[in-house]
Prior knowledge:
The chain is globular and about 75 Å long. Helix 7 (173-196) runs parallel beside helix 25 (585-607), helix 9 (217-227) crosses helix 32 (738-744) and helix 17 (426-435) packs across helix 25 (585-607). It is 38% helix and 15% strand. The protein is built from 35 helices and 28 strands. By secondary structure, the protein is α/β, with parallel strands linked by helices. The strands form 6 sheets. Strands 13-19-18-17-14-15-16-28 form an 8-stranded mixed beta sheet, sandwiched between helices. A 7-stranded mixed beta sheet has the order 4-3-2-5-6-7-27, sandwiched between helices. Strands 1-11-12-20 form a 4-stranded antiparallel beta sheet. Helix 1 links the parallel strand 2 and strand 3 (46-51).
Amino acid sequence: xxxxxxxxxxxxxxxxxxxxxxxxxxxxxxxxxxxxxxxxxxxxxxxxxxxxxxxxxxxxxxxxxxxxxxxxxxxxxxxxxxxxxxxxxxxxxxxxxxxxxxxxxxxxxxxxxxxxxxxxxxxxxxxxxxxxxxxxxxxxxxxxxxxxxxxxxxxxxxxxxxxxxxxxxxxxxxxxxxxxxxxxxxxxxxxxxxxxxxxxxxxxxxxxxxxxxxxxxxxxxxxxxxxxxxxxxxxxxxxxxxxxxxxxxxxxxxxxxxxxxxxxxxxxxxxxxxxxxxxxxxxxxxxxxxxxxxxxxxxxxxxxxxxxxxxxxxxxxxxxxxxxxxxxxxxxxxxxxxxxxxxxxxxxxxxxxxxxxxxxxxxxxxxxxxxxxxxxxxxxxxxxxxxxxxxxxxxxxxxxxxxxxxxxxxxxxxxxxxxxxxxxxxxxxxxxxxxxxxxxxxxxxxxxxxxxxxxxxxxxxxxxxxxxxxxxxxxxxxxxxxxxxxxxxxxxxxxxxxxxxxxxxxxxxxxxxxxxxxxxxxxxxxxxxxxxxxxxxxxxxxxxxxxxxxxxxxxxxxxxxxxxxxxxxxxxxxxxxxxxxxxxxxxxxxxxxxxxxxxxxxxxxxxxxxxxxxxxxxxxxxxxxxxxxxxxxxxxxxxxxxxxxxxxxxxxxxxxxxxxxxxxxxxxxxxxxxxxxxxxxxxxxxxxxxxxxxxxxxxxxxxxxxxxxxxxxxxxxxxxxxxxxxxxxxxxxxxxxxxxxxxxxxxxxxxxxxxxxxxxxxxxxxxxxxxxxxxxxxxxxxxxxxxxxxxxxxxxxxxxxxxxxxxxxxxxxxxxxxxxxxxxxx
Length: 826
């Protein structure tokens, strides 16, 4: 029996599913491909999981019941010629093939795209590699820790502890984004196949999965190389302490609460809710806007906030914040606690499955709610080979599609228009991912532009989140401005916003309002908590969701358990928590948002169904932490990193070398044996203490000491070269920052992950590459627009004359920001 709890406890009747009649052949191993095909299964695809005898080796992971749900299992031995021929026969009947691992694996099995297309010209072939299909790192071992270390992501956490060197990146964001990138590529390819009638090649990688999480470093690196002057870092106002808006605070019962009051009115609401606003206003130092407070005043306010929060328990404060309704804050939770959040349950994001082997399994539900083509109840994870005979005996005609039009090189979404009315990161970055697949994305901004543009003086922060779009600034509070929006709506396939419930209706773009103008439109709300549940109308920002969904606490390591007794200790732990709770919850929401939008667009194309789509950051970040967002009897706890945040175990952690740092990933018996041979330490391989993974875990401290002593004998670059040449997972972890890596690393350039573009303010630059490609990269990846950069061009396209456009500008209905070009960054 399967139960899905939805809003009000009611289940929507399923008229049809997005992927009804689509067969997916899943030849991937492990959770990255597993989560991608799980999304497809949730929305109606028949997913056949092809496993070797004995099953996918990653079934041993505690999370496998989650990423195997809804699928059928067939055992086929791809190491034999007979097994490969069976797999090739299944390819002939499939719509989608998903395969993971280094590029050479698909070729060895005869299942690379070229040969698969010979078997089935209408196939969507999806390849998920660790590092990309070409370049010097293409065949390196595919552990996320290696990708995070080499790309500089672990260096971004270096300030979390007051020690030298990078810090282990605990939340598996590259895996999360790469799995969603595969979903996006497959759905976009299916859309393109509906139009062109031919198969499509989809490519993504763990390395591409890191790209959404660099929100500005690549641009800043390029600016710094040219001007020599870095821009101010908004995270460093007040030294390395959190900003007052985003401050972790400790309650009376020693529970930490994460605040997320980015905008001034939210911060003032927070101060009012804790009864500190009136006190501060009495002080001359706090009379002006918080942005004008001096450094000394900020520190005085910080201490008063931290002391005030110690006066009540976390539950008491949260009740006050919920009653206030305008304070963004949530306690730090782990995934087990988060599963009990009423907002998840009431938005249909908790699934309870009665598994025949594990009993009741509570787990995260579908990525989003599609009102007309919702996810279908999922089967529990299949036993190994449970459906082998059934799958091999089935007959199914090869998919055939008659071309409807000539294929275009402009991308799979070239005929799709997306209207975005959103600010800051989560929703804007989601639509940029669609632009990278060829969609035309038109961003409707306030007259003064997206507030996110103004957090740095030249608008550097908005370059990543708006890449590939057009921008028009409209005053939607004016009747004439709302008329202009209606004209844009009539030309759109989808409208995406991130406002709280009720606001779109007041501004004229609620679902019923836009559906009346454009029947069949896909209307998307991407906000904090979803439309139902007690927090539906509360504000939310990324650190709040990072805390609530368990990711921030996981990255924080031992900090949450530390018992603070003095104000200085509270300040230090709040600093550590602030560094741990970096911006990843926003991009983690963005990648889920893009997948959900594409599901609805495909439903519109396949079934002529328009609908409302609800995506929330809480559910999306549960998915980002889905490696442990499930509960069943006997499930082992989530692995924890060591107190110094080097990693998870001796064979999967950071080590200082003679010069620099390395990350070692040799967790399996085979990996460990290869490592011992490569470093001429057969004694370690023969040591009874280190025989088998469990033995190595039991003697982890002793093994870590042996390996640490070894790595101190050479510098990090030498170790990387020596070990990777012998297929051992070891890379330098502090060789380049994220910005430098994604701007100029030869491997990044070889894979087209830093395309060149021309920005109106910053000139020629390398921007961030796509999360996924379909039939290769786009001919051109557009830059980010300035606010209103395309206002006149879009109005002209709508039929307005030059005189009419001038009048709209003079009356304040539309606007554009000035260009103010800076020196070229090359």
